[in-house]
Amino acid sequence: MKKNVTYALDYALNKGFQIHPDALKILEDLDVNDLKDVIKQIVREKIRQKRYLISQDDLESFLGIKEDSSLENEHRILFDPTSKITSAEGIDGFNSLFSSRFSKLKKIISNRPEAKLLKSIKLVMATKSDNDVYVCGLVFERNSDRNVTRLKIDDSTGFLETIVFDKDIQKIANELLQDQFVMLKVRLSKNGGFIVRDIILPDIPDHPSNRSKSETYAVFLSDLHVGSKFFMEKEFNDFISWLSSPDPIARKIRFVILCGDVVDGVGIYPNQDKELDYPTVEEQLKKLEEVLNKIPKNIKIFISPGNHDPGRRALPQPAFPEKYNGVLLKHENFFLVGNPALVSLNGVKVLIYHGQSIDDIVKTTPGLSYDTPTKVMRQLLKSRHLSPIYGGLTPTAPEIEDMMVIDEVPDIFHVGHVHIVGFDMYRGVLLINSGTWQKQTPFQASIGIMPTPGLAVLVNLKTFKVYYQDFKTEF
Ligand code: D5M
Ligand code: FE
Ligand code: ZN
Prior knowledge:
The structure is a single chain. This protein is an alpha/beta fold. It folds into three domains: 3-63, Helicase, Ruva Protein, domain 3 (Orthogonal Bundle), CATH 1.10.8; 75-85 and 206-470, Purple Acid Phosphatase, chain A, domain 2; 110-200, CATH 2.40.50.140. Helices cover 28% and strands 23% of the residues. The chain has 13 helices and 19 strands. The strands form four sheets. Strands 3-13-14-15-17-16 form a six-stranded mixed sheet, with helices on one face. Strands 12-11-10-9-18-19 form a six-stranded mixed sheet, covered by helices on one side. A five-stranded mixed beta barrel has the order 4-5-6-8-7. Strand 16 and strand 17 form a beta hairpin. Helix 1 (3-14) runs parallel beside helix 3 (32-49) and helix 2 packs parallel to helix 4. It is elongated, with a radius of gyration of 27 Å. Residues 261, 306-308, 354, 417 line the site of zinc ion.
């Protein structure tokens, strides 16, 4: 028992009072300076009432931390790939994946007025009109040399090679990602080349976001890497204890969202076994469950996988497979979803995605880097796709439906993977990268990644105000 609590206990006993064990737990979390005052005032009040047991209820009422029943914690899982995964095989599978991507995004862009003038590449090539025409397709190639950018797009009726001269349009062109969907306004030049006169991305409309009616808070976390020698167990446990503390924000938390890499996994990178405290996935998950079990039961916990978690690596990833999920699913307040997933928390739509494709985007796009993850997240929203680049570092499964298309506009877009906290607003969407609870690893040091570990990102779902709670103890 902590020393300050002993003081409270002695004081109460001397006056003929008993303190219930649940009430003691609350006293343990109080600041020493507040404690003496609190206990004296409660004793005075109870003497007046002639009641000689100090209960949890007495303390919670006195401290104003009594559970607020007006805080809603309603959730709906709006999209989860788990049951939709079919994994079509071979080339055919990829053909259907890309044709699904093309038709879904064409539908999204068809809300634009220009889309009424869309023509197929085959028709444009055949008619050779010298008016402006609109075409759409997936980016097949993008080359920039000196003053011109060349774009080749594919709409399944054929390929169109185009040239961008205009400097402003070049800026957009140079940020285009391989296999991203675009609409181009082009005109045939006298020497037979198609000049790009505008680039239109599917993008998201600027919109007022859905908000929670009550001031419920959600905590956004990712990349715990439980099992790794570098998992910051002490800091993470401090955070978990804080969730039960009298802190006014902690009292209003009803949701925790874990965005992948919750465990470090086994055999994920060469010689990983030398960097593991827990050498099997089962032990890692048991450890994770032990820690998460201490979270108050009135908080719903959503867990989505990342590239270190058990199950298939290719996107979209299903929720943790049955072989491993028992230890987590025995808790009624735990919900396992796939990657990506869309959940509604008190009406606020949260898109959860681990963020594997960021590796490919940072690698191929000038001006984007790991330390500005929210800039990459903007690109993803503009392209209305979570993993546009095919054939890079991000494994993609040959699904019949492209579930990485951002069909619905979210209110909060939650990503992890880069281990660096960041937040921003884009067209009414709150972008959050929730960092990590793993110290810098030797691999990250070797490639110059400076993580920001030990920060809990908290959001008021009514106001969308973002707070950080810092649990880092080493600098
Ligand atoms: O990824 C942790 C961090 O390391 C994240 O910023 C991405 C980066 N990372 C991971 N794999 C690679 C490769 N192969 N190249 C470059 N950068 C990488 P995590 O998923 O936790 O291992
Ligand atoms: Fe990670
Ligand atoms: Zn990761």
